[in-house]
């Protein structure tokens, strides 16, 4: 049996999932742990830059040599901005041109889809 009062640190990892029940269960579990331990979780997930930072460290790339590609402004593109890497938004997923025009989070580059990125790189 784990004594939750002895827990020094725990992680919260969010998933990009539209399942509201799953999100509620995750939130409830985190609240339980916060109350039981008296501690806030260490958060790993978008838009925090930790995942990009780990990739840069493990590959030896600099932020200027890397990009992040995604279709969600508030997660993928915000992660790139927070990590200091260029952010490419593809319009084949969630984000729309109107979202980009009206929103505060702006990608560095914009493409219709990943295929268009590939064609530009060739």
Report what the structure shows.
This protein is of the alpha/beta class. 43% of the residues lie in helices and 15% in strands. It has helices at 20-37, 50-59, 73-83, 97-102, 114-121, and strands at residues 11-13, 42-44, 67-70, 86-90, 109-111. It is elongated.
Key features?
two-stranded parallel sheet; 5 strands; alpha/beta; 43% helix; elongated; 122 residues
Write the layout of secondary structure elements.
Layout: E1 11-13, H1 20-37, E2 42-44, H2 50-59, E3 67-70, H3 73-83, E4 86-90, H4 97-102, E5 109-111, H5 114-121
Parallel strand pairs: 1-2, 3-4, 4-5
What Rg, in angstroms, do the CA atoms define?
18 Å
Beta content comes to: 5-15%
Average pLDDT taken over every residue: 90
Judged by helices, strands and strand pairing, the structural class is alpha/beta
Describe the strand arrangement of the main beta sheet, using strand numbers.
3-4-5
User: What is the percent of helical residues?
Assistant: 40-55%
Report the uncertain regions: none
Distance between the termini: 57 Å
Q: What global shape is seen?
A: elongated
Instruction: Please work out how many helical segments DSSP would assign.
Output: 5
Profile the largest sheet: 3 strands, parallel
Compute the number of strand runs.
5
Helix and strand sequence = EHEHEHEHEH
């Amino acid at each position: 049996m784990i004594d939750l009062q002895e827990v020094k640190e725990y992680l919260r990892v969010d998933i990009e999932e539209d399942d509201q029940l799953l999100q509620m269960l995750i939130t409830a579990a985190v609240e339980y742990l916060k109350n039981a331990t008296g501690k806030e979780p260490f958060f790993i997930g978008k838009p925090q830059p930790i995942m990009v930072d780990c990739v840069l460290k493990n590959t030896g790339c600099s932020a200027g040599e890397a990009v992040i590609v995604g279709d969600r402004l508030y997660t993928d593109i915000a992660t790139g901005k927070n990590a200091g890497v260029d952010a490419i938004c593809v319009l084949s997923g969630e984000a729309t041109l109107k979202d980009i025009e009206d929103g505060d989070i702006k990608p560095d580059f914009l493409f219709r889809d990943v295929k268009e990125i590939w064609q530009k790189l060739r």
